[in-house]
Automatic annotation (TrEMBL):
The entry's keywords: ATP-binding, Chaperone, Cytoplasm, Nucleotide-binding, Stress response
GO MF assignments: ATP binding; ATP hydrolysis activity; ATP-dependent protein folding chaperone; unfolded protein binding
Encoding gene per record: htpG
Protein family: Belongs to the heat shock protein 90 family.
Protein name: Chaperone protein HtpG
Record's keyword annotation contains Lipoprotein: no
């Protein structure tokens, strides 16, 4: 048997899905209905500007009200309004967007982009919280009669003559039991603040009490009286909708405090404003970072035509800039049908690249125009720059001119400047440049001092990302490697031709190595004798640079889990030219020989903060006994 046909989809099947499962968060209903009301208001304004509506506009606004006793929430506007026929067209036909039709009609006008709605489904979010919805509306069209529409959440509806006397629309939700949490002034204010804080039409929600001057009393003191005023919850013209030339630093700082009232002032900001090949506005702030970077994330708010969408912006904002704060607004960002999150497409990639480019240009300008101010901020912005250099080659191409290397003396150098500074002393016998660094200057102070004595400069690399940054820079810089200052003794950090001669005989060397292996007696510590400068420490404990770096990357989740599971292994480097080692080699008393060896080894551990607890107590006790 063979048969062909078409699949039949009935509203009885799809309507419950739309009203119950389209939106993941039920609070979205208020955003959708208020946005629709703003659309209607923007439309009547557009028609008035084009001369197609010649009546009085009045005080254009949207109002949200609720009645806890009647269990209703009402959203009203004095916008375009609808006729009965338009209700049938825009409300009864699911997914027919009046906004889409309006934009198409006025597609050559910039103002058409102010219309928010796209999919024609937002109205039905009302049924997530209401078991009955009523519409009272009166169209702006001359001679129109008011209409009343009601629906109980099924596919049945009723349209009758309405009672509205003035142009606009009033939607009343009869809240169901599951939606009673929204019959609260605090809860509604919270939702309005979240989603509607910057809508382009004033949103009234109840009233607020303000104190106003009311003359003076008999003693000449100013009197005040309480006055009830409309509670307008939104700023209709936020700074990202304005041209940068209109704004002062104070405006940007005040807006930042409005967004993040408990944060310190930002370091600086970038104003985004582009209209080709996509529309994008916004302001991104560089904050002062805290130690908990995860707490800093998800602080960029995504808007579409001033309607809040989400603070999950990982697709549109490069990963390395996720620690920035601020606002991005674009009508060209592809949203899913419920306008709750992003959908991937080519525009997302273009916007991502644009933001990367603008940030790089801003940083380059700061460095070029005021290097000292840039250096003062480096401890805060260095993380962004290094992360960007690692994760984005295009960003690195720009950042390589202003990325800074800081040494233990707190001096800053660009990559070319640092190469010029250290090349004379830190080029090894094979012509390879070696950059020496510390990630803990206090703990590694003894190694730093030894390196400095040899004329070596030591870089400070102690941010959470520096381990990855070092590996990345090694690939970018020609014939250059990094070594941590405690990866070896100073004489061996940079291989030179002029190694000191060994003063111990072969027999003494064998004896010393055996004494230390017996005294240490730990499998993780491998003893080796070296011919070093007599002024260096008698014993130094190091970890191989490659192994230590791989283990640190594994600890940070850098994909090196194999190395992370391997045990720590150390080199115990015996300075064969130190006078203490010569004494041990010539000592006939085996007990004293062992005690001196343990003491030299523990001193090496102590210098790196590796000696604690009982071992430290034993070291002190042994020191007293040896003195005695």
């Amino acid at each position: 048997m063979q048969e062909k046909g078409t699949i039949s989809i009935h509203t009885e099947n799809i309507f419950p899905i739309i009203k119950k499962f389209l939106y993941s968060d039920h609070e979205i209903f208020l955003r959708e209905l208020v946005s629709n009301a703003v659309d209607a208001t923007q439309k009547i304004k557009r028609l008035a500007l084009s001369g197609q509506y010649t009546g009085e506009l009045g005080d254009l606004r949207v109002e949200v009200a609720f009645d806890e006793d009647k269990k209703t929430i009402t959203i009203s506007d004095n916008g375009l309004g609808m006729t009965a026929e338009e209700i049938k067209k825009y409300i009864n036909q699911i997914a027919f967007s009046g906004a889409a039709e309006f934009v198409e009609k006025f597609k050559d006008s910039k103002d058409a982009n102010e219309i928010i709605g796209r999919f024609g489904l937002g109205f039905y979010s009302a049924f997530m919280v209401a078991d009955q919805v009523e519409i009272e509306t009166l169209s702006y069209q001359e001679g129109a009669t008011p209409a009343h529409w009601t629906c109980d959440g099924s596919t049945e509806f009723e349209i009758t003559e309405g009672s509205l006397a003035e142009r606009g629309t009033e939607i009343t939700l009869h809240i169901n039991k599951d939606g009673e949490e929204f019959l609260s002034k605090h809860r509604l204010q919270e939702i309005l603040d979240k989603y509607c804080k910057f809508l382009p039409v004033p949103i009234k929600f109840g009233t607020t009490t303000q104190e106003e001057e009311d003359g003076v009393d008999e003693e000449g003191k100013t009197k005040y009286k309480s006055v009830e005023t409309d509670n307008i919850i939104n700023d209709t013209n936020p700074i990202w909708t304005k041209a940068p030339a209109e704004l002062k630093d104070e405006d940007y700082l005040n807006f930042y405090k409005q967004l993040y009232p408990f944060s310190e002032d930002p370091l600086f900001w970038i104003h985004l404003n582009v209209d080709y090949p996509f529309n994008l506005t916004g302001v991104l702030y560089f904050p002062k970072l805290k130690n908990d970077f995860e707490m800093q994330r998800n602080k960029i708010k995504l808007y579409s035509r001033q309607v809040f969408i989400t603070d999950e912006v990982k697709d549109i904002v490069p990963e390395f800039l996720m620690l920035l704060h601020g606002v991005i607004d674009s009508p060209d960002i592809p949203l899913n049908v419920s306008r709750s999150f992003l959908q991937a497409d080519s525009n997302v990639k273009k916007i991502n690249s644009y933001i990367t480019k603008k940030v790089a240009e801003k940083l380059a300008d700061l460095f070029k125009n005021d290097r000292k101010a840039f250096e003062d901020k480096w401890s805060d912005i260095g993380l962004f720059v290094k992360y960007g250099a690692i994760s984005d080659d295009k960003f690195y191409d720009k950042a390589k001119d202003f990325v800074l290397l800081t040494n233990t003396k707190k001096e800053n150098f660009t990559l070319p400047e640092y190469k010029e500074k250290v090349a004379p002393e830190q080029t090894d016998k094979d012509g390879k440049l070696v950059y020496i660094y510390t990630n803990d200057p206090d703990k590694q102070d003894a190694f730093i001092q030894s390196a400095n004595k040899k004329g070596y400069d030591v870089l400070l690399m102690n941010s959470p990302i520096d381990n990855h940054f070092i590996g990345h820079i090694e690939h970018k810089l020609e014939n250059t490697s990094f070594k941590r200052v405690d990866a070896d003794v100073a004489d061996k950090l940079i291989a030179k031709e002029d190694a000191p001669e060994h003063i111990l005989t072969e027999e003494q060397s064998t004896k010393v190595k055996a004494v230390f292996e017996k005294a240490i007696n730990r499998a993780a510590y491998k003893v080796q004798l070296e011919s070093l400068n007599p002024e260096e420490m008698p014993v130094t404990v190091t970890m191989d640079e490659f192994m230590r770096r791989m283990k640190e990357m594994a600890a940070m989740g850098g994909g090196m889990s194999f190395y992370g599971s391997m045990p720590d292994n150390y080199k115990v480097i015996i300075n064969g030219n130190h006078k203490l080692i010569s004494r041990i080699a010539n000592e006939e008393n085996e007990e004293l020989q062992t005690q001196l060896s343990k003491q030299a080894f523990d001193l090496a551990l102590l210098s790196q903060g590796l000696l604690t607890g009982a071992e430290l107590t034993e070291f002190v006790t042994r020191s007293v006994n040896l003195i005695d």
